[in-house]
Specification:
By secondary structure, the chain is α+β, with helices and mostly antiparallel strands. It has 24 helices and eleven strands. The longest helix has 18 residues.
Length: about 550
Amino acid sequence: MDAITPFLTDPDPVRAADEVQRRLDELGVRDHHIRWALADLPLEDEAAARALGRRLTRVGTSGVAVCLGLGLLARLGEPEDIPYLRTLGLLRDFTGYAVEALSPLDRAAAALVWLSVYVDDSELRPVVDALAAGDAGAARARLTTIPRSPRTVGPETARRIAEAVRLTDVLREDPIDVGVLAQAGWLLSRMTSQRDYRPEILSYDDDAVAAYEAVVARAALLPPTLDHCATLLSLALDLHSGPSHLLPWPPGRREALLTDLESLLHSPGWAAVADHEPDDLAERRRAHWIRRTARQPFGHSTADAPRLRVEVAVRDPADPDVAETRLLVDGRPVVPAAFGLGPGNAPEELLDSGRLRATAEPREVQLAEAYCTEGCCGALYVTVQRDGDHVVWRDWRRTQSGRRGQPELPAYRFDAPAYDAEIARAENDHSWAWPARITARLLAAGLRDRPDLLTRWDARFGWVGTDYHDPDTTVVSFTFWPGLAEGQRDVDGPWLQFFWSLPDDGTPPEARAAATLTRLETTDPKTFAQVRGGSREDAEALGFPWPEGRD
């Protein structure tokens, strides 16, 4: 940046732009991410820097020069720049940068640019095309036609749709279409998903608060259906312990919304929604989830919250996600506040393992991992240690880019007996789990206690969980490594990963897990499990068929 800094104060933008482009060419700069270097750069003469940014974006002769101009306008842009930013945004190489610069000036226009470039789904295009044509009425009318599919509408797409149609304005209309109200609630719920790099609900910020207020205020207009009940319960769960808790709420307002949702969802007509057993499997899963989750978001207030509360949160099965451990300190969720790049780790990793238990020996614990994996965007760690009558969480550590833009965390001290009691309660609370997940937890415990059940078959235990696409199926993962039973494993030799799938047959989880462990005593699991990893060459060498469709 030293090469261009002198030109940020040049009163002649034409001369400055020409010189900047010449310097960039001389230095061979090709990285469009140069704009990031501008984020914290002091700008002594904002008018001159703004004029330079405008010149670079309008007549720049290289991509990197245009991106540099967009970086300046992201900090200094004014309404007169909107038409140029909208045009540049339609060029895919500049879309993300132009949207960043456009968002503070015209949020709806920025969202429309994003949707116009990145959305190609045929079911979403009518809404986008109506917005692009300037027909806001038609776009709003098509809101109810947007399919409620997590595959079609991701968290960011949900936010961009809400911004582009000015959802908060739609929700103020009187009367309001009940279908639009229901769709607004679903879009809010999609934004709370952490199957992305940042919970989109936090990027929606002030508008999210207004949208929550409007949806909850009119929720009684919705008929009490399974779908509506699941949506409202999802919103309540996130308000209680998810990212939505962190929105800029006026004092007491979040708690008031939870009280209103509790009154509605526990009223006779709504409480009866999940009492029956739907014939459809997907709907039956949702009904069971509602029964398990109905009380979880309610009955807690920040004012009387314990110093530490540990909960396991499971999303609506119609919007599948991981089961995450949520850690609340003084009523405030730690992971989204301190990390925000992924959900808290699974209860099997934090609770079943005993990792959160405190001893005099300090233990570093990974609390969360980025949605894309730690190797990509990092993870959040804390050191847990007993210190006399207290337990201390200290030495917080974020790896990789998990450190960027996040606040420093203080050491938290907890009363040791209260801490121990809360961890024990959380470890023994399985009310969130469904039969296949309970089976998985029991199997994991059994295999930890008796590793010989797999090693006798030259197999090493991997993990046990539930199938992401079929949560009623328990999956056992293990690796076949010849020689393992005799302690002579060839680390450079062939190996294969196997998945053993156990669909729910209605057997109680305890009996199911016991029968599975008993089977391993006498039967080699490689004779009925399926190869899922390794290589075709290793499969052929070891005499197993390689699965179709895998390279």
